[in-house]
């Protein structure tokens, strides 16, 4: 009887060695990672960066608490005279379970941005925003206005990529002077031109080129599991402004990585370990079985 018990224990030990060898040889699972980027404003001339906000960037290796960067009203580096009304806002957040979100752009006076736990972006503010595209004395001016101009994105390690833009009440406002009396102001709604990746040319002012717009720009990269968005990209064409690009609300989410319980890179090792463990277990159990028969 004692011999049988000893044999049973040895058989269980052999099976345990097999399992330990298989699962111990594979690399331990790594946690899901996440990254997010947000920049309210970037002005460049012929590709050279000028006035801009320092981007809010966060990363989470999957073991850290929630990482967030929200400077409130981000400081503007350099000088610009295009934004005539509104405040700059930006926030980026990365959670440890492979989720991230970002939101950035221009909001009305007193505006703030907040990213909820579900990744949604909420922007507040009053009075709207204004970006001057052209201003020529004795000719007139063209200004882009809206309640707010912001872009947002979110991503998960499972490949759920989202992007959106807030462009409520987007419109072009043209002001032309009169010899007598106040200037003539006309407003053209762009509410029907806010679908993703909508490009348009601003009408000329007294024969002068003004600008081209890319509204609600979005780009999805399934290979790297990432998404980027720009609420508004303006290429100025006016005299002295040609080559100037204004980007409002740049965000990027993703490059998140999902690691299963048994990482792919551990499978070859586990496969080899399984073969060795099975060989060892087979011969060990065979030997124990022979001993059991002899004990009878």
Automatic annotation (TrEMBL):
* Signal sequence coordinates: 1-31
Task: State if Signal is listed as a keyword.
Answer: yes
Q: Which UniProt keywords apply?
A: Signal
Q: What is this protein called?
A: Secreted protein
Supply the source organism for this entry: Catenuloplanes niger
Lineage of source species: Bacteria, Bacillati, Actinomycetota, Actinomycetes, Micromonosporales
């Amino acid at each position: 009887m004692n011999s049988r018990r000893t044999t049973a224990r040895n058989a269980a030990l052999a099976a345990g060695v097999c399992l330990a060898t298989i699962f111990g040889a594979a690399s331990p699972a790594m946690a899901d990672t996440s990254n997010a980027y947000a920049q309210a404003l970037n002005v460049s001339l012929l590709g050279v960066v000028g006035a801009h906000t320092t981007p809010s960037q966060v990363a989470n290796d999957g073991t850290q608490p929630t990482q967030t960067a929200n400077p409130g009203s981000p400081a503007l580096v350099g000088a610009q005279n295009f934004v005539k009304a509104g405040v700059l806002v930006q926030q980026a957040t990365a959670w440890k379970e492979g989720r991230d979100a970002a939101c950035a752009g221009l909001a009305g006076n007193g505006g703030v941005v907040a990213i909820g736990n579900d990744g949604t972006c909420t922007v507040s503010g009053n009075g709207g925003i204004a970006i001057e595209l052209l201003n020529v004395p004795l000719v007139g001016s063209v200004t882009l206005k809206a309640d707010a101009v912001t872009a947002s994105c979110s991503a998960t390690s499972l490949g759920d990529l989202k992007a959106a833009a807030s462009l409520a009440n987007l419109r072009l406002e043209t002001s032309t002077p009169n010899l007598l009396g106040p200037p003539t102001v006309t407003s053209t709604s762009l509410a029907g031109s806010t679908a993703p990746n909508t490009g348009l040319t601003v009408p000329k002012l007294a024969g002068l080129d003004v600008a081209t717009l890319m509204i609600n720009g979005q780009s999805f990269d399934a290979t790297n599991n990432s998404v980027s968005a720009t609420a508004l990209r303006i290429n100025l064409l006016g005299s002295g402004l040609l080559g100037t690009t204004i980007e409002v609300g740049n965000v990027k989410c993703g490059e998140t990585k999902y690691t299963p319980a048994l990482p792919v890179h551990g499978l070859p090792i586990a496969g080899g370990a399984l073969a060795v463990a099975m060989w060892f277990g087979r011969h060990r159990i065979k030997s124990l079985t022979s001993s059991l028969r002899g004990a009878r």
